[in-house]
Amino acid sequence: MHADESLSLKTDLAITKWNIADAAVAEHARTLLASSNEAADQLTEACRSIGAWPLSTQAASVIRFVGLGSEPDGGRHLNVYIEPPLTPADVPAASVRTSGLAAVVRAVRRGLHALIEAREGDHWLDFALPVGASDSWVSAYTLAMLADIPVALIASYARELDDALEWLLAARTPRGGWAYNGAVPDDADSTAWAMIALQAWGREVPDQAREFLLCCRRGPRSFATYPAATAPHRGWSHAAPDVTAVAARALGLRIDPPRLACRPSHLPPAFWWASPVYTTAMLLECDLTEPPSSALRSALARFVPSGPFERALLLRSCLRLDIRGEDLADALVMSQDRSGLWEPSGRLRLANPETASPWEAIDSGPLFADKRGLFTTATVLSALARFVVDEMAVRSNLSDAPAPMWPPWLPRALRHGPNERSARPAAAGEERAPA
Fold it and tell me: How much is the pLDDT for 431?
C-alpha cells in the first residue's frame, strides 16, 4: 500500500531452490530485463563489478533471489540479489597471528569456568523450542564436548563433572534412552550423545540405551531421530544424516566418509541443523570405511563459516584432516564474550514434519538458536582444546619433549610416544581453512 492508497505487488523467488546454476538464472533474468525495455547487460556489469563473472554453469552459488515487482503506474522492475563470491585472492595475504597458543589456553580456561557456572543445579539448559528448553540433550552434548579438554585444564572441576554425569544417568527414561527433555519421547540423537559422554568419561553405558538406538536404525548405515512407533511426526522417523553420524559414533559402527553433495556448499546436509558443516564434523569422528576424499578437503578449505558455532565445527573438521587451523582458532579467541561464553550461533532447525529432506525444502521449518550460548560455547571449547592438543603434539615431536595436558580420549600410546601425525611447519601453498 502506497501513500496514495494505490497497491503494487512484489514477489521474491528463492530461485536457488529450483535452478541448478547461476548462468541459467542470469540468462532468464536478462530476458526479463529485455522484455521490460531495460538494459539486459546491467546484470552482467553488476556481476563483473564484484568478481562474479563469468557465472557458473554448474552451481547456484552467487545469485540468491530474484524479485519481480509492479508499480502503480504500470511499470515493472526486476531485483536480482547477489552474494559476492568469497574466492581466494591471487596473492594471499600474510597470516597474522592475533592470539597464539597461550591465548587459546586462556580462552579455554575462561570459557570452561563460565560454562560450569552456567549450570542449573547439576546440569545445563539451553534452546527454547515450543516444547521448552532442553536439559538431557544439551547436558549430554556438553559433557561429550568437555571430554576433549586436557586434564590439566579441567581437573579442578572434577566434582562438578561427576555430579553432571550422575544427573545424566538419572535422566534416562524408562524406555531406555534419553530425550530432548521430559516433554517428548526418547530420540536417537540425545541417546547417542549421552552414550558418547558416558564412554568418554569412563562410565558404563546401559545396554537398554544401545537397544533403543538400534531401534532407530534405517538400513545398514542410516539412523532416524525417532523409532517409527514413537515418532511425534511421521517425517521425523526418516533417516537423518546428522543423527546417523552421531549414532554410528556412539555404537562404534563403520560408516562411509562424508560425500560431497550437489549444493552450494558441497558439504553433506543436516536434518536438524542449518549448518552443513555439522554433519561433516560428526562424520569425521566415526570409524570410516575409507579415507575422506581430497575433494572434501578442498570443500572444507573453501568453506566460509558464519559465527563461532560453524567456525568451531570447521576447526574440528580441519584438525581431523590435517588442514592448518591457526586462523580459525585465533578468530574464535577474538570472538569470546566478556562473560567467557560465545554468542549463540548454533541454529537448530525444527524440521517440517511433512518433509523427509528438509535441507531441500523452501519451508524447511523455523530456526532456533541456542538462546544462552551454552551449546555454542561447548562446541568452541572442544574445538579449541583439540587445537591445543594438536599443537602440543607437534611441538613435542619437534623438541622430543613430553607433551603435557593430554585429554582423556587420547590413546595412551600417543600420550607418551611420538604422535603419528607428521609434525611440520606450514608449507607454501598448504591448505588453510578461512577464518
Answer: 54
User: Cell triple for residue 320?
Assistant: 581431523
d(CA 317, CA 319): 5
**For residue 69, is pLDDT > 80?**
no
C-alpha cell at 82: 547477489
- Which cell goes with 234? 511421521
Give me the CATH code for the 101-416 domain, please. Answer: 1.50.10.20
Q: Which of 378, 385, 380, 429 shows the shortest CA–CA distance to 406?
A: 385
The C-alpha atoms of residue 97 and residue 325 are separated, in whole angstroms, by 11
- Cell 560454562 maps to which residue? 115
Cell of 139: 547436558
The radius of gyration computed from the CA coordinates of the chain, to the nearest angstrom, equals 24
For the ranges 12-21, 38-47, 181-190, 297-306, the maximum mean pLDDT occurs at 181-190
Burial of 185 (0-12, 13-18, 19+ CB in 10 A): middle
More confident residue, 31 or 164: 164
- Of the chain, the percentage scoring pLDDT greater than 70 comes to 73
Domain ranges of the chain: 10-82, 101-416
Measure the CA–CA gap between 276 and 313, rounded to whole angstroms: 10
Return the minimum-mean-pLDDT range out of 132-146, 288-302, 328-342: 288-302
